[in-house]
Write a structure and sequence with these properties.
- This protein is α+β, with helices and mostly antiparallel strands.
- The protein folds into 2 domains: 28 residues; 122 residues, Immunoglobulin-like, CATH 2.60.40.
- The chain is built from 1 helix and 7 strands; from the N terminus they run αβββββββ.
- The chain is globular.
- The termini are far apart.
Length: 154
């Protein structure tokens, strides 16, 4: 009887370790949007609802959102999101994130929000919009499209 209990305990521990290991791998993936990519989904929704530690989405996103046209109805694909340490594309370039073929952008690469971070979005046509204020979070769709206008470029 003792032998069966030890075997059962060993099997449960092994299963637990496998579950923890798979969860860690899933959340440590490097996932970055790219021009013409079509793997993204749920345009306009807060990506970090799923793409977070212990979330259902692949990877833990640090910055993510959706870009629309000037009417804020249709998504704009293949733009570029740049993060700077100063307003109006001043200071150091912190990160460059490509907007995919569905209008979404996302990255799991580490972004330091302790210092000031300013966003600049350039559409595929070259139209550019800069956020006036700095951001303290990369959950763009948690405000844009909810309490403020959607992110847009021509």
């Amino acid at each position: 009887m003792k032998k069966n209990t030890s075997l059962l305990l060993l099997m449960n521990m092994t299963f637990g370790i496998l579950l923890l290991t798979q969860g860690c791998e899933k959340n440590n993936e490097t996932v970055i949007s790219n021009y013409n990519g079509n793997e993204s989904h749920n345009m306009g929704e807060n990506c970090m609802e799923c793409h977070k530690t212990s979330g259902e989405g692949e990877g833990v996103f640090k910055v993510a959102g959706t870009v629309y046209d000037s009417l804020m109805i249709t998504t704009r694909k293949n733009g570029t999101v740049r993060l700077y340490s100063g307003p109006d594309q001043s200071g150091s370039l912190i990160a460059t994130i490509e907007v995919d073929g569905k209008g979404n952008f996302f990255t799991t690469e580490s972004i330091d929000f302790i210092d000031e971070v300013y966003v600049s979005i350039t559409g595929s046509s070259g139209d550019r919009h800069d956020m006036i204020s700095n951001i303290s979070s990369g959950q763009c769709n948690s405000c844009h499209g909810v309490t403020t206008d959607k992110i847009w470029v021509k």
